């Protein structure tokens, strides 16, 4: 099953959706980094991206999303090699405000 077919099946699903993280994510003030792959066969990361994108459109800016188009579930390049996951993880904290205890 290719990616488009998996996405279509998820979007057509009419059963219980389970836990909806959007309300918690919408009110969270804790900066988060989301590393998402596009070739995951285990998790529908596109669904996470849809939630995060919808929050961003409403002005929620505490969540940073970094996408790796050729990465698999383990954030490895599906064609071989490693995507720059480490660089994304290490540089992201430098973009965040640091809260220091008095």
Outline, from the CA principal axes? flat
Task: Provide the helix percentage.
Answer: 25-40%
Low confidence ranges: none
**Strand adjacency order, main sheet:** 1-2
> Would you report the number of β strands?
2
- Written as H for each helix and E for each strand, in order along the chain, the element string is HHEHEH
Strand count, sense and barrel status of the largest sheet are: 2 strands, parallel
Oligomer: single chain
The amount of beta strand, in percent, is 5-15%
| Structural class designation | alpha+beta
Overview features:
single chain; 102 residues; 4 helices; flat
Describe this structure in words.
The protein has 102 residues and is of the alpha+beta class. The chain has 4 helices and 2 strands, in the order H-H-E-H-E-H. Strand 1 (32-37), helix 3 and strand 2 form a beta-alpha-beta unit. The protein is flat and about 40 Å long. The chain starts with a helix and ends in an 11-residue tail after the last helix.
